[in-house]
């Protein structure tokens, strides 16, 4: 899906004065309040061309091929690191980012693992990968004591066999789903040892017949509509499903939980490609996003936590006060992060994931 945000009359006038400047942004689908895009154009006079993608792999293909034509892109941390190493990004000119002081050290300290010194990127959103459940259906199938806050829910074959009756979807994201399986069996989720990674295949071989589908976005509506009863997915997506179900008043109650055994913490970072056609305008867009109220508006819309400490006073209470979005310190301490695989290990991961999805 491609979205071209049309300038308002006032914005068009400003744009004409600014010699028809433009900025091209490539972001995840359903990941911003579109009112912000119009507001950016009106405030800056810069025309915004805004396209969306659904997987890191799609973005990475464009980035590593070069000449993407984009000025701002939003890779997840592990992919960002690999792309920085490949020379895909330019360092930020922080003189052009006066709002960068709004960033939150709790997040920037962690994103340094992917972007040392945070020289190439700013955090847009962060979250966790966990469990979305249709509470009533899961209890109906597994009983009142269903382990809805544990990876046992989906990695225990006995549970999955029963849950298959009401439908289970998994993320089509090997960089997240393989570490989750390793963590579940007590292995290092960040292991780069091919022999350890292969153990994830053993976990999935037992449950694969009961997984209805792997994908990156369909589970939002499927969960909200009651078409499935469990989704392993990204926190904000599942919270969107929760709210869509509530708005529809369709009798579906969706909850998100961070499994007690631990879960992956991920970071979506905004960065400027090395060959960006409009780097000055790209910096203007990043600085706009770094504004505390703008960043809060984005989080209030998508129900994801962000890396902007100054935005927190403007967040809705059902965002800042929800431990599924902003976890307490004990939960934060139990989250893990991963680092990108080198090409040799990536081949192992890709082959293994292909095998898991095909059920072979």
TrEMBL record:
Q: What is its main location?
A: periplasm
Q: Any signal peptide, and if so, which residues?
A: 1-20
Q: Decide whether keyword Transport is in the record.
A: yes
Task: Indicate yes or no for the key word Hydrolase.
Answer: no
> Which CDD domains is this protein grouped with?
PBP2_PotF
Q: What keywords are assigned to this protein?
A: Periplasm, Signal, Transport
Among Gene3D superfamilies, the record links this protein to:
Periplasmic binding protein-like II
GO BP annotation list: polyamine transport
Q: Where in the cell is it found?
A: Periplasm
**Positions in coiled-coil regions:** none
Per the record, the domain of life is Bacteria
Q: Which GO terms describe its molecular function?
A: polyamine binding
Listed transmembrane segments: none
This entry carries the following GO cellular component terms, namely: periplasmic space
Question: What does the function comment of this entry state?
Answer: Required for the activity of the bacterial periplasmic transport system of putrescine.
Which family does the record claim for this protein?
A: Belongs to the bacterial solute-binding protein PotD/PotF family.
Q: What is this protein called?
A: Putrescine-binding periplasmic protein
The source organism is Roseivivax marinus
